[in-house]
């Protein structure tokens, strides 16, 4: 059966607005559907806070528990480890009225657990097939590419601020995507907190690294205020400059 899903990931240099863009894209998407899986793939697990969602257990925590049980030899050979991990991961899924959220967290276990990792990959793949949209907030930088967390992404959005390092990271992400043969259908650059009048400069810089600039998000005092007060970004006023900019991006990539 063909999959109905569309997977969108947000990556980029640290602090360039990945989590903010993910939250605002989610705000745009929940206008149309509640068939959304949000994945916080950043080990720092910031997204739940920004969305006002409580996460008690991450995938990393339950994976560690399984590794620990394997290491201690306390799992009966009669029990399917894969089935067990799958059930535990489903238990970590947070369901809200508007979307479901999975927090990957961090896995501390030592040693090679390729088996566990490959099961994890497969379970995530299966899980995301149950949703029309999967929205992933990635870890800063490039590491996620070597772990192939992005392998099934349809639309990759790379955030950058107005810095050479932001653009350099964007270029490396695009390059690595090709090097590790990740089959992404479309990749776009998103400029965040770009000072007025710099759009042209950024557009040219994007072209030089072979990326299409799909939109620019202005610095928005509402984002700062909501973050500082710990209020969910989903509740930001509809006429907030950042949200209006993200609505345009959502429309351009066909999220409606
Ligand atoms: N358009 C914006 N207007 C105002 N503040 C913003 C904007 N975008 C991001 N910020 C602020 O900048 C900081 C970093 O943003 P954010 O957390 O979204 O970046 P990130 O790329 O997810 O960071 P990390 O790499 O640490 O995960 C946050 O405090 C956020 O509130
Ligand atoms: Mg973040």
Topology:
Elements lengths: L5 E7 L5 H12 L6 E5 L6 H5 L7 H14 L8 H12 L1 E2 L4 E4 L10 H15 L4 E5 L5 H4 L8 E6 L3 H16 L6 E7 L6 H10 L3 E6 L3 H9 L11 H12 L4
Parallel strand pairs: 1-5, 1-6, 2-4, 2-5, 6-7, 7-8
Antiparallel strand pairs: 3-4
The structure holds adenosine-5'-triphosphate and magnesium ion.
The site of adenosine-5'-triphosphate has 20 residues, from α1 and α9.
Please characterize this protein's 3D structure.
The protein is of the alpha/beta class. It has one domain: P-loop containing nucleotide triphosphate hydrolases (Rossmann fold, 3-Layer(aba) Sandwich). 43% of the residues lie in helices and 16% in strands. Strands 3-4-2-5-1-6-7-8 form an eight-stranded mixed beta sheet, sandwiched between helices. The radius of gyration is 19 Å and the shape is globular. The two termini are 23 Å apart.
Core attributes:
256 residues, alpha/beta, Rossmann fold, 8-stranded mixed β-sheet, 10 helices, 8 strands, globular, binds adenosine-5'-triphosphate, binds magnesium ion
Q: What is the structure about, briefly put?
A:
By secondary structure, the chain is of the alpha/beta class. It has helices spanning 18-29, 47-51, 59-72, 81-92, 114-128, 143-146, 164-179, 199-208, 221-229, 241-252; strands at residues 6-12, 36-40, 94-95, 100-103, 133-137, 155-160, 186-192, 212-217.
- Reading off the top of the CATH hierarchy, the class is best stated as Alpha Beta
In round numbers, the mean pLDDT is 91
Strand content: 15-25%
Cα radius of gyration in angstroms: 19 Å
Question: How many strands?
Answer: 8
Query: Tell me, what's the shape?
Result: globular
> Which small-molecule ligands are present, each listed once?
adenosine-5'-triphosphate, magnesium ion
CATH overall fold name: Rossmann fold
Count of discrete structural domains: 1
Please provide the ordered H/E string of secondary-structure elements: EHEHHHEEHEHEHEHEHH
What structural class do helix, strand and pairing data support? alpha/beta
The CATH architecture can be given as 3-Layer(aba) Sandwich
Low-confidence stretches: none
Helix content: 40-55%
CATH superfamily: P-loop containing nucleotide triphosphate hydrolases
């Amino acid at each position: 059966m063909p999959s109905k899903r569309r997977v969108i990931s947000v990556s980029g240099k640290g602090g360039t607005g990945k989590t903010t863009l993910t939250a605002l894209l989610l705000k745009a998407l929940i206008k149309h559907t509640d068939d959304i899986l949000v994945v916080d793939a950043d080990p720092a697990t910031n997204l739940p806070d920004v969305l006002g969602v409580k996460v008690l257990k991450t995938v990393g925590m339950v994976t560690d528990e399984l590794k620990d049980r394997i290491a201690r030899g306390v799992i009966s050979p009669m029990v399917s480890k894969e089935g067990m991990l799958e059930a535990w991961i489903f238990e970590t899924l947070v369901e809200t009225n508007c979307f479901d959220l999975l927090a990957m967290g961090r896995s501390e276990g030592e040693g090679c657990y390729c088996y566990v990792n490959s099961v994890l990959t497969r379970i995530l793949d299966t899980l995301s097939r149950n949703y029309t949209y999967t929205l992933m907030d990635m870890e800063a930088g490039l590491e996620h590419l070597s772990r192939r967390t992005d392998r099934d992404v349809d639309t990759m959005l790379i955030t950058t601020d107005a810095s050479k390092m932001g653009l350099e990271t964007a270029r490396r992400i695009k390059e690595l995507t090709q090097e590790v043969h990740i089959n992404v259908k479309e990749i776009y650059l998103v400029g965040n907190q770009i000072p007025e009048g710099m759009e042209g400069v950024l557009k040219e810089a994007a072209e030089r690294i072979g990326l299409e600039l799909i939109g620019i998000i202005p610095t928005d005092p509402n984002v700062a205020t909501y973050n500082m007060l710990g209020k969910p970004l989903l509740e930001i006023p509809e006429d907030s400059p950042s949200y209006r900019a993200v609505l345009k991006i959502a429309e351009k990539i066909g999220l409606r």
